[in-house]
Amino acid sequence: MPAPTQRFTLGGQRIPRGTTRDIRLKVSERYTGDAITLPIRVIRGRKPGPTLFVSAAVHGEELNGVGVIHQLMFDTPLPLNAGTLILIPVVNIFGFENQSRYMPDRRDLNRSFPGKPNGSLASRIAHQVFQEIITKSDYGIDLHTAAGSRTNFPNVRGDLNVTKVRRFARAFGCELMVHGRGPEGSLRREAVKAGCAVITIEAGEPLKIEPRVLEAGVRGVRNCLIHLDMMTGKPVDPPYQVRIDRSTWIRAEVGGILRFHVAPGEVVETGQAIATNVSVYGEAQNILHAPAAGIVLGMTTLPTVKPGEPVCHLAIPKGATKTLQRIFASKQHKNYQQIQKDLATNVTVSEQELDVPNLPQDDDNT
């Protein structure tokens, strides 16, 4: 990683300390030969310090991160005292324009890092971003949402076995810290290999900019800037914070229409009803139950399912009993309640379970 005293250049432009510069980084060309560029804003404090990048829309339809960066750019004062902040509101410009997760050739840009200068379109863009931004940064925050027809309760993901990453993840201030190196070729995994401590934030749905997710994202970025001494201020702490080393997907057993009994961020007990699956005539077919005590990390927002399709992503904390007791006790926290309530508006939650006639109880339905 670069020493904080060396000159900083991006896209061939030198950005002095104490200045802000908007840059268009060329990453490809159109059929006409015209340049395709990524919009980037570089903010430099007057004092030396670390370099942090914040990126969004590596998956082109994941827009919440775009909203977070816009708010950081335009609505939220960022009196940067030290270091360098790089804001990239749209990384996958092709997917962004087509409202698609993928590149035009159906490749996943977030499986293409660190890329190659003479590889596929995705690989070339990944290479350019990696060389121009990631290798020049000490830290990174990569903003994501759930995949199509799903939503995620805000959580931070990273290789928590790496001390620098773990401390940075904790500083962001999400309630849930999910351990994982990330898939091969993902931005965060390859960046950490290169010495840049990157965390991924998963929050909300694709193709939306959700107000409470924006609040959580902006709050987290500011927390990280304060943690790195790039800004002054007091961080906003979450009501609880727990490390997640294990999670499981609860999947549909039969085709039908779901009636949900839980919402994103909700704490559930072993055996608690997650959803009732009903037929097209409204007759209950089976009930999906939680296989362990945990927290609803994510869930489908699409009520229709076929057998095997994912319904609920359940995070299982370490030391579940004591941790869950603390979580129950802290649910009056305002920020927690607000975002949980807003995300729950995307699913219809019913407390009432329907009777399932003539079917044995299935204790292992995941």
Automatic annotation (TrEMBL):
Keyword Metal-binding annotated: yes
GO MF entry, a single one: metal ion binding
Pfam family name, one: AstE_AspA_cat
Gene3D superfamilies the UniProt entry points to: Zn peptidases (3.40.630.10)
Keyword annotations from UniProtKB, A to Z: Hydrolase, Metal-binding, Zinc
Cofactor(s) for this UniProt protein: Zn(2+)
InterPro entries: AstE_AspA_cat, N-alpha-Ac-DABA-like, N-alpha-Ac-DABA_deacetylase
Coiled coil: none
Domain Succinylglutamate desuccinylase/Aspartoacylase catalytic: start-end pairs: 48-228
Domain of life: Bacteria
Tagged with keyword Endoplasmic reticulum: no
Protein name according to UniProt: Succinylglutamate desuccinylase / Aspartoacylase family protein
Species the sequence originates in: Mucisphaera calidilacus
